[in-house]
From TrEMBL:
<feature type="domain" description="SHSP">
    <location>
        <begin position="25"/>
        <end position="141"/>
    </location>
</feature>
<dbReference type="Pfam" id="PF00011">
    <property type="entry name" value="HSP20"/>
</dbReference>
<dbReference type="InterPro" id="IPR008978">
    <property type="entry name" value="HSP20-like_chaperone"/>
</dbReference>
<dbReference type="InterPro" id="IPR002068">
    <property type="entry name" value="A-crystallin/Hsp20_dom"/>
</dbReference>
<protein>
    <submittedName>
        <fullName>Spore protein SP21</fullName>
    </submittedName>
</protein>
<dbReference type="InterPro" id="IPR031107">
    <property type="entry name" value="Small_HSP"/>
</dbReference>
Amino acid sequence: MMPIRRTQNWLPGVFNDFFTNDWIEKANVTSPAINVLETEAAFKVEVAACGMTKDDFNVRIDGDENLIISMERKDEKREEKKNGRYLRREFSYSSFRQTLILPDNADKENITANVENGVLHIEIPKLKDETKKQQRAIEIQ
């Protein structure tokens, strides 16, 4: 009789183990999706930033004139008082950093960024190509 009593609670244990997310492989937890679009006038970068605010991001140009996009938000570990309890909880955020090498025709002085509807939008205007570079032959002496 003892083995039967010991295994009476196996069903709730199976469900509790299933709904914990420790065994689930998390793909791209710290790497949000990025789109880069080139138009005639600009390069447009979109970063999936669901639940993020502009304060969670840092967009800058480094010393090598590369575009650095970084974000940091701490995991929410505290449990809020709610009716019920979570059986599965996957909302978590951590740090992310992406370096984009800017092309020579990027106008690095006029880059703009904003967060709208869960997407970080960065617009990198292209330099006006007012003077076409002339090809010329170099005389060898």
